[in-house]
Design a protein that fits this description.
Layout: H1 3-12, H2 15-21, H3 27-34, H4 41-49, H5 55-63, H6 65-68, H7 71-79, H8 85-91, H9 97-105, H10 111-124
Helix pairs in contact: 1-3, 3-5, 4-7, 7-8, 9-10
Length: 129
């Protein structure tokens, strides 16, 4: 298929086509899937957890206000090692303390994200003497 055909399919295709095309090597095709009007929150949640997607797709998900209101999407974005560091650090305050602690101990995320999660966790937990 040509890029033009894949773009059309990404914008108008069904769930199965979107699932395949979001992993496309061409960023334009992958981002077209995110702009599909029929994409559901469940699909976006799954895409946010995928490690085989372009960083631009994850950035677009993080900038969409409707999707950022969904906790599972935010959680998956924060845990995804492909999420751009600036985006991941920006959404960390939206996470629960328990999840921040898990991210601060995870080796799957970048060192900067892990360090910021640890700092936020330290600020939120009361100190006992």
């Amino acid at each position: 298929m040509t890029v033009k055909d894949r773009m059309k399919l990404a914008m108008k295709g069904d769930r199965e086509a979107r699932g395949i095309l979001v992993r496309d090597a061409n960023k334009v095709v992958a981002t077209a899937v995110i702009h599909n009007p029929r994409i559901t929150d469940r699909e976006v949640e799954g895409i946010a957890a995928m490690r085989a997607v372009a960083e631009e797709v994850l950035r677009l998900i993080a900038t969409n206000r409707a999707w950022i209101r969904s906790y599972p999407i935010v959680h998956n974005l924060a845990r995804n090692p492909r999420t751009p560091i600036g985006t991941a650090v920006h959404i960390l305050p939206l996470l629960r303390t328990k999840d921040l602690k898990a991210i601060s101990q995870s080796r799957n995320v970048s060192e900067n994200v892990r360090r910021q999660a640890y700092r936020l966790c330290e600020v939120r937990t009361p100190r006992t003497k």
